[in-house]
Design a protein that fits this description.
The complex is a heterodimer of chains A (about 575) and B (about 180).
Chain A (H helix, E strand, L loop, with lengths): L5 E3 L6 E3 H31 L9 H34 L8 H24 L16 H30 L9 H31 L8 H12 L1 H22 L6 H14 L16 H9 L4 H23 L8 H4 L6 H24 L13 H28 L8 H27 L23 H34 L34 H26 L3 E2 L1
Antiparallel strand pairs in A: 1-2
Helix pairs in contact in A: 1-2, 1-3, 1-15, 2-3, 2-4, 2-5, 2-7, 3-4, 4-5, 5-6, 5-7, 5-8, 7-10, 7-12, 7-13, 8-10, 10-12, 10-16, 12-13, 12-14, 12-16, 13-14, 13-15, 14-15
Chain B lengths: L18 H27 L8 E3 L2 H15 E5 L4 E4 L6 E7 L2 E3 L1 E5 L4 E7 L4 E6 L3 E5 L3 E8 L4 E7 L11 E7 L1
Parallel strand pairs in B: 3-6, 4-7, 6-12
Antiparallel strand pairs in B: 1-10, 2-3, 4-5, 7-10, 8-9, 8-11, 11-12
The chains are: A mainly alpha (about 575), B alpha+beta (about 180).
Chain lengths: ~575, ~180
């Protein structure tokens, strides 16, 4: 093979093919730009929902909320995920990228779709939220922009699958694909399902908005839309967990506790997670209880089990590696002596804890058929998903980006001091956002609502408990902190790409960018007795008890309200 | 070999599972069964189970039924919009109209009595959110959802909208009074 086609990374030994490298850079940069745009809109939303500030006018608020959701949930996440897919195929398997031209066409479609969507929403008559629930109608270009973006992402998935085939045929690796690649395959399979669902709902909606179809049924829209809307969050989970495993290996040289368990858990996602529209319809008319109960749990909550497995095996693999590196005393020496100043690690670990404790537990609790009655469409829901998508996915992707700057972009990171603080700022701010919104939601505060003081109704008001206003103010402060953290990230990354010291083709980066795995013998006799990862087990038990207690508290809350039959 | 490289052992599926993992998987699996069981269990023992009784309707047909109820049982007018306050007999059918941007009419209910609420939208999707009871139900156009409510406390309740329904979404509010 021609040497001009790839370079070998001096720090990691990974092979970067030119064709894939430029595409990963383009997708990652686009992702960060849309994160910045979406974050600015988010600041507007947060400051408006702070009762004492109430920054925007109503029309601006609903516009900002629409743009915030679409820019971060779709554009930031999916651009970054396409970069992750190319990394997990081309780079990890040491293989050229299949059909780079198709990949570029996909990138162009995504970019056109994303720009068009922002343009349409900014016009002011497409403030229909991320969900655009029919029969509320947006201009045709709104739906078209999302379709273009989705088709572009589908191109990216096909290029990923094609690259896997090439790697297999050209025998660039032996045996099975790496676990991280396996996670990326999971994400890509779910992505295809997601995009097909999106097409099934958005294409008729586009036809309806131009007058070709006379009626879109609201319930049908919700059912199919959520097969797209929720599944796109499952892409995030699969990609984010692949990134967790990758960072555990990069920072600690960790290996999976057992390949079988981790891969089975990814497989469970494909089998049991993707038909997730039902839990958005738990208080809808026309949907049977059997359908709701079965689809929210698949009778055994197997997808939840998968997440809880990853939640154990990722820190477990870190603990085992740390113990093998010699940090074997007590329960938590391995964790205390972890590199907390390295944003790649701290970002990943805060993502893990925040996703599990704040996002995971609350998601399962409110997904119980009857508990959903006291949660549906309150601020609890955005509180929950800011813990999953922002604290979980976004922070994991940020952590990974710090590592990619020198490795992929060949630039040294600037402002390293700020970078080492950034995950804490963002993590703390976003934890506050999640917690305070969930708290306000428990008090009944609605989501997507401009004015909970009802000042424009001519005197028909509802007074929420005073604590609700306090929680909304605390939420506003947390938004500020999170925005400082998010802006720091964008400044550091964009600044590094523009002004960071260029690294020569064979120049090693100044710090150790990848940790050598401990020798197999070093794993002998670690931990306490038969338990190799006692610290992780303790953390898992704390998690389990929190989960169970919180779960039953919510049944108690439910029991206190009116009889509902 | 790390998660970034192919498994060292090509026959990785034959490797034993770590004890910690086995313990955790068993615990989590049982927990999943417990949570699955809780939902049908609550259907049998709990007082809060949302009915799924639903009929196809049209805005005109639904509004006509609501108007009939208003004509029959209105006891007074209420608030700046002079909304009729309807006091339907205990156990009867109560029609609540969701539309841009109000809940119509206002209602007066008796504590401890049950009512068959009919919910439907005249236009877009809305969110029935009864505060401070914090009961939240999606309301769709063309679907008539029949839900039985039994108020357990007296007082003034608000029905706010928690499904975004356009520029007046935050103005959409209605009242339910529960008396002894």
């Amino acid at each position: 093979m021609d040497n001009q086609q790839f370079r070998v990374c001096p720090d990691t030994g990974l092979k970067f093919f030119r064709s894939a490298e430029a595409l990963m850079k383009a997708n990652a940069v686009a992702a960060v730009v849309f994160l910045l745009v979406g974050g600015i809109y988010g600041l507007g939303v947060g400051l408006t929902r702070w009762p004492a500030v109430h920054l925007l006018q109503a029309d601006q608020f609903y516009l900002a909320l629409t743009a915030h959701g679409i820019n971060v949930l779709l554009f930031w996440c999916i651009f970054f995920e396409i970069a992750v897919l190319y990394f997990c195929s081309s780079v990890l398997l040491g293989c050229r990228l299949a059909a780079p031209k198709v990949a570029w066409a996909g990138f162009a479609l995504m970019l056109i779709g994303a720009l068009m969507n922002n343009y349409v929403v900014l016009q002011g008559n497409a403030s229909v939220m991320f969900t655009s629930y029919a029969p509320m109608e947006a201009p045709p270009l709104f739906y078209l922009s999302l379709i273009l973006f989705a088709v572009g992402a589908l191109f990216g998935c096909f290029v990923f699958f094609g690259t896997l085939v090439i790697a297999k045929n050209e025998k660039t690796y032996e045996g099975s694909v790496p676990l991280v690649t396996f996670g990326a395959i999971t994400a890509a399979i779910i992505a295809v399902f997601t995009i097909v669902s999106g097409a099934i709902i958005l294409i008729p909606t586009l036809a309806w908005s131009v007058g070709l179809i006379s009626h879109i049924d609201s319930l049908m829209y919700r059912l199919v839309w959520w097969a797209f809307g929720h599944s796109s969050q499952q892409i995030n989970i699969a990609a984010q967990i692949a990134v967790w495993y990758a960072i555990a290996s990069i920072v600690f040289g960790a290996k999976p506790m057992s390949e079988k368990v981790s891969r089975m858990a990814f497989l469970l996602y494909i089998l049991f997670l993707q038909l997730a529209s039902a839990h958005h319809l738990l208080v809808d008319p026309g949907v049977s209880s059997e359908f709701k109960m079965f689809n929210t749990s698949y009778a055994m909550y197997l997808a939840v089990m998968a997440s809880m497995i990853h939640g154990l095996t990722v820190p477990g693999s870190i603990e085992a590696a740390q113990r093998a590196h010699g940090f074997n005393s007590g329960f938590f020496e391995w964790l205390r002596k972890a590199p907390w100043g390295n944003p790649t690690f701290s970002g990943m670990f805060i993502s893990l804890i925040g996703f599990g404790f704040l996002g995971g537990i609350t998601g399962v609790v409110m997904g119980a058929e009857q508990i959903n009655i006291i949660v549906h469409n309150t601020l609890y829901v955005p509180g929950h998903f800011h813990a999953t998508v922002v604290l979980g996915t976004t922070l994991a992707f940020m952590a990974f980006t710090y590592w990619l700057v020198p490795i992929l972009f060949r630039r040294e990171l600037i402002m390293k001091g700020l970078a080492s603080w950034q995950p804490y700022l963002f993590g703390l701010g976003m934890s506050g956002v999640a917690l305070f919104m969930m708290g306000a939601g428990t008090l009944g505060v609605p989501r997507r609502h401009y004015d909970i003081s009802f000042s424009g109704t001519g005197g028909i008001v509802h007074e929420f408990p005073a604590a609700a206003n306090t929680l909304m103010a605390l939420n506003g402060l947390s938004v500020l902190l999170a925005v400082i953290g998010g802006a720091s990230f964008c400044i550091i990354i964009v600044g590094s790409l523009l002004f960071g010291k260029k690294l020569g083709e064979n120049e090693k980066c100044s710090v150790s960018m990848i940790t050598a795995p401990p020798a197999e013998e070093a794993y002998e006799g670690i931990g306490k007795g038969p338990i190799t990862v006692p610290g992780t087990l303790v953390l898992a038990m704390i998690f389990f008890v929190s989960f169970a207690v919180y779960y039953f508290i919510n049944w108690k809350y439910l029991a206190e309200t009116w009889g509902i039959g | 070999m790390t998660s970034l490289s192919p498994p060292a052992n090509k026959l990785w599926w034959n490797e034993p599972i770590e004890k910690t993992e086995l313990l955790w998987i068993s615990l989590v699996f049982v927990w999943g069964l417990v949570m699955t069981f809780m939902m049908p269990f609550w259907h049998i023992t709990g007082d809060q189970n949302l009915s799924t009784e639903t009929y196809r309707t049209t805005p005109e047909a639904f509004l006509a039924k609501a108007q009939k109820m208003v004509d029959k049982y209105t006891v007074r007018k209420d608030g700046p919009r002079q909304t009729p306050v309807v006091k339907p007999p205990a156990g009867s059918d109560v029609y609540l109209v969701a539309r841009l941007w109000d809940w119509w009419p206002s209602l007066e209910l008796q504590k401890g009595q049950s009512y068959r609420f009919h919910l439907s939208s005249m236009d877009w999707q809305h969110g029935f959110s009864l505060q401070p009871a914090n009961i939240n139900i999606q309301v769709l156009p063309d679907y008539e959802h029949v839900v039985q409510f039994t108020p357990n406390k007296t007082g003034e309740y608000s029905v706010i909208c928690n499904e975004y329904c356009g520029i007046g979404h935050h103005l959409m509010i209605g009242k339910i009074y529960v008396v002894d």
